[in-house]
Amino acid sequence: MTPVDLELDCRDLACPMPIIRLSQVIGRVPVGGTVGVVARDAAARCDVPAWCRIRGHEFLGEDTTDDGTPRYLVRRLR
Which of 24, 36, 41, 52 could join 4 in a cystine, given CB atoms 3.0 to 4.6 angstroms apart? Predict the structure, then answer.
């Protein structure tokens, strides 16, 4: 698992809540820092990279948590 500066547990949240939560917390990590968005909602697989493109951050990819839940990695660029 990739180390992150902040991990959001959005396991029980449906679209669009994981993206809304990401928008709310991205400023809590320093520029260059990484946020991990843990989400079971299938839409997050498309939504997180799209949000990164729109907002000017870097989508680093996907890994999984110890329980097998997808985790989407975002680097803050600005």
Answer: 36
